[in-house]
């Protein structure tokens, strides 16, 4: 039996950066994000009793080594829940540049969780799909949910999941500064931040406070505060990362120039705020109705240095299905 699922990446407004349990992927803090309507990942899982090992195909090429091992570890979780041992064939197609800091692991594990759960006969509620996706990659638990989602840090495996959070209709403009894979994975960088950055504990306290502020701003439909907290939260995360030894710096000179561009846009009355994940790409957050105006303004802003084909307009997208 083959099950196919589609999931989209999400971009956090309050970031997840740090685990208190590496095996269960329980985060140090809660986070809040927008699931987008661009760059879907489509994954098919076929359970086949004749297979002696799982088979993985990523974008048409057979996967081996640690990416494949991570999938098998994940499928083992699904098999344990389903009480089955049959191996599976996984075929996944990504339309987001893998490893470029555009959250491909989020859409990847969200799609895999939904497809694998169905293929193995598990009938999971949204909350349990979110918990399952979390075990593949923390941020994937938020891509189970459409639109804006809050991932509750929770107390344990049962209470750490994402759910919908109501607020203003937001959109994003993704500035693709560099679409090649990053040198240090977010998983490794997260661990290094915790073990070597003197700012790690400061980050955790700040992120907790930012999440509360963000929830209040969502409830109040206050886009200015949502944006201001988003921008500051991202820079705080990057500050903690830059404090690692040996250091890790994801932001490129052009990334910084794009944070400056957000400030220039705001001076013209256009409410746009910048954020960046574990890579040099910058994502602008704004009201959904302003997405085209923000994109046009960035194209027109010469100092931003972004050609139109590297500025991608995005809106709230569906949860994994
Ligand atoms: C910077 O979810 O990729 O995008 O749980 O180790 O797989 P693992 O990490 P991952 O980290 C995402 C980090 C981030 C921030 C965020 O999406 O909240």
UniProtKB/TrEMBL annotation:
InterPro entries listed in its UniProt record: GHMP_kinase_C_sf, Mev_decarb, Mev_diP_decarb, MVD-like_N, Mvd1_C, Ribosomal_Su5_D2-typ_SF, Ribsml_uS5_D2-typ_fold_subgr
UniProt-listed Enzyme Commission number(s): 4.1.1.33
Entries under SUPFAM superfamilies matching the protein: GHMP Kinase, C-terminal domain (SSF55060), Ribosomal protein S5 domain 2-like (SSF54211)
Highest taxon of source: Bacteria
Transmembrane listed as a keyword: no
GO MF annotation terms: diphosphomevalonate decarboxylase activity
Domain Diphosphomevalonate decarboxylase-like N-terminal: 7-162
Span of domain Mvd1 C-terminal: 172-298
Keyword field: ATP-binding, Lipid biosynthesis, Lipid metabolism, Lyase, Nucleotide-binding
UniProt-listed Pfam families: MDD_C, MVD-like_N
The keyword Lipid metabolism belongs to this UniProt entry's keyword annotation: yes
PANTHER family registered for this protein in UniProt: DIPHOSPHOMEVALONATE DECARBOXYLASE
Similarity-based family: Belongs to the diphosphomevalonate decarboxylase family.
NCBIfam families: mevDPdecarb (TIGR01240)
Protein name: diphosphomevalonate decarboxylase
Organism listed in the record: Microbacterium horticulturae
């Amino acid at each position: 039996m083959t099950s196919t699922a589609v999931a989209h990446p999400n971009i956090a407004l309050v970031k997840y950066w740090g685990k208190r349990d590496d095996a269960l992927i329980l985060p140090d803090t809660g986070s809040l994000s927008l699931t987008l309507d661009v760059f879907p990942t489509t994954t098919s899982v076929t359970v086949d009793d004749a297979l002696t090992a799982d088979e993985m195909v990523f974008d048409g090429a057979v996967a081996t080594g640690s990416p494949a091992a991570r999938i098998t570890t994940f499928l083992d979780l699904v098999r344990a829940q389903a009480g089955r041992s049959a191996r599976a064939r996984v075929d996944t197609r990504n339309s987001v540049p893998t490893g470029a800091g555009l959250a491909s692991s989020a859409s990847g594990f969200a799609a895999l969780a939904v497809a694998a759960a169905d293929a193995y006969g598990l009938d999971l509620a949204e909350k349990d799909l979110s918990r399952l996706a979390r075990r593949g990659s923390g941020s994937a638990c938020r891509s189970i949910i459409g639109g804006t989602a809050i991932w509750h840090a929770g107390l344990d495996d049962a209470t750490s999941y994402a759910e919908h959070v109501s607020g203003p209709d937001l959109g994003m403009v993704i500035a693709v500064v560099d679409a090649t894979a990053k040198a240090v994975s977010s998983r490794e960088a997260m661990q290094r931040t915790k073990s070597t950055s003197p700012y790690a504990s400061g980050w955790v306290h700040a992120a907790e406070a930012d999440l509360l502020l963000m929830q209040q701003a969502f409830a109040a439909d206050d886009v200015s505060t949502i944006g201001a907290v988003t921008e500051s939260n991202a820079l705080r995360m990057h500050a903690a990362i830059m404090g690692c030894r040996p250091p890790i710096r994801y932001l490129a000179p052009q990334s910084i120039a794009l944070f400056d561009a957000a400030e220039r846009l705001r001076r013209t009355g256009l409410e746009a705020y910048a954020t960046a994940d574990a890579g040099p790409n910058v994502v602008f957050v704004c009201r959904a109705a302003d997405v085209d105006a923000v994109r046009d303004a960035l194209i027109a802003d010469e100092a931003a240095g972004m050609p139109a084909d590297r500025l991608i307009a995005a809106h709230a997208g569906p949860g994994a299905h």
